[in-house]
Design a protein that fits this description.
This protein is of the alpha/beta class. The protein is built from 13 helices and six strands.
Length: about 280
C-alpha cells in the first residue's frame, strides 16, 4: 500500500496495536515480517501507521502472534478496512491535524465522557461562545481562521445532535458555567443551550459546585472516547504544547479512575440542572 505523508491518529493507533500484539508474542519486527512475507521496512511502516494494512494481513498477524482476543482482532480489521471520508476532510490542510483526528475519533466512538473545568465542553458550545474563545487565543488568529475553527466545532456536534448520537456524559465545574465568555448575553444563551441538551436521553450532565468541600480535581479536564473494545479507548488532553492522544493501558485505567472520582464528587443530574437554571436566571 502507498505510504502516507501524515497518518491520522486512528491509523497510528492501528499500527501501535499491531506492534503491541507482536511484542506480546515475543517476536522482533524482522521475525514477524518474515512470517507474513514482508520486510523490516514494510513492518516499520505498518506499525507506525505510515502504510496501511489489509484485512488478510491483519488476520495473518493475529494468527502468527497466537492472539485469542477475537473481539480485538475484529475491531482492528474494521480499522484497517475503514474508508470513511467524513465531513472533517473539508478542513484537511487548513486546520491542524489534531482537529481532524478528534473529529474522526468522535465519529467512531461508542461513547464520550468529558470533564470540563474552565470552559463549557466543545460539544455544547454555541457559535457565539466558541467564537469568543478562538478570537481570544494568543497568538491571535485572523478572522478567517477563527471562522474556520468555529465552523469545525459546530459540525463536530453531530455526534451528540445528529441522527445517530453516541452516549455522552460530562462533568462541568461551576467555574466554567460562571465565566462570562462572550459577555452576559452570550453566556445566558450558552447556559440555556446546555439546559436544552440535558433533555436528551443519551446525554447526562453533572456539575461540581463551588460549595463542594475538599475538591482537588481542578486539573482533571479530559475527553474519554470509547472504542469498540475497552483496549481501544482513547483519552484526549489539551496542553500548552498541543493536543495529546493517550492510549496505553495504564493511562486509560488512570483516566477511567479519574473520571469516576470526579463524577462521584459531582451533583446528581437533577440537582445539576437546577444549578444551571439558577445561574442562567442570575445573568
Amino acid at each position: 500500500m502507498p505510504r502516507r505523508k501524515q497518518p491520522t491518529a486512528r491509523q497510528v493507533r492501528l499500527g501501535l496495536e499491531l506492534r503491541k500484539l507482536r511484542e506480546a508474542a515475543g517476536l522482533k519486527a524482522r521475525e514477524a515480517a518474515a512470517l507474513v512475507g514482508a520486510d523490516s521496512v514494510q513492518m516499520s511502516n505498518i506499525e507506525s501507521g505510515i502504510s496501511g494494512v489489509s484485512e488478510a494481513r491483519v488476520r495473518r498477524f493475529a494468527g502468527q502472534y497466537a492472539s485469542s482476543d477475537s473481539e480485538l482482532i475484529e475491531a482492528l480489521v474494521a480499522m484497517a478496512t475503514d474508508r470513511t471520508r467524513g465531513w472533517w476532510e473539508e478542513f484537511r490542510g487548513v486546520l491542524p491535524a489534531a482537529y481532524l483526528d478528534l473529529a474522526e475519533l468522535d465519529h467512531h466512538a461508542t461513547f464520550r465522557h468529558d470533564v470540563a473545568v474552565t470552559h463549557v465542553p466543545g460539544l455544547f458550545q454555541t457559535e457565539d461562545y466558541a467564537h469568543a474563545l478562538f478570537a481570544y487565543m494568543n497568538p491571535e488568529f485572523p478572522d478567517s481562521e477563527v471562522a474556520l475553527r468555529v465552523d469545525h466545532r459546530m459540525k463536530r456536534k453531530v455526534v451528540v445532535e445528529g441522527a445517530d448520537p453516541i452516549p455522552y456524559e460530562t462533568v462541568i465545574h461551576e467555574a466554567a458555567l460562571r465565566i462570562k465568555v462572550g459577555g452576559r448575553t452570550a453566556m445566558r444563551a450558552q447556559l440555556t443551550r446546555i439546559l436544552e441538551m440535558t433533555e436528551a436521553d443519551h446525554i447526562t450532565v453533572r456539575v461540581i459546585p463551588f460549595s463542594l468541600d475538599d475538591f482537588a480535581g481542578s486539573g482533571s479536564a479530559l475527553v474519554h472516547l470509547g472504542g469498540p473494545v475497552p483496549r481501544l479507548d482513547t483519552v484526549v488532553r489539551d496542553g500548552p504544547h498541543g493536543t495529546a492522544f493517550l492510549d496505553s493501558e495504564a493511562q486509560l485505567e488512570h483516566f477511567r479512575t479519574l473520571f469516576r472520582k470526579v463524577k462521584e464528587a459531582s451533583l446528581p443530574p437533577r440537582q445539576s440542572r437546577d444549578l444551571i437554571h439558577q445561574l442562567a436566571k442570575e445573568l
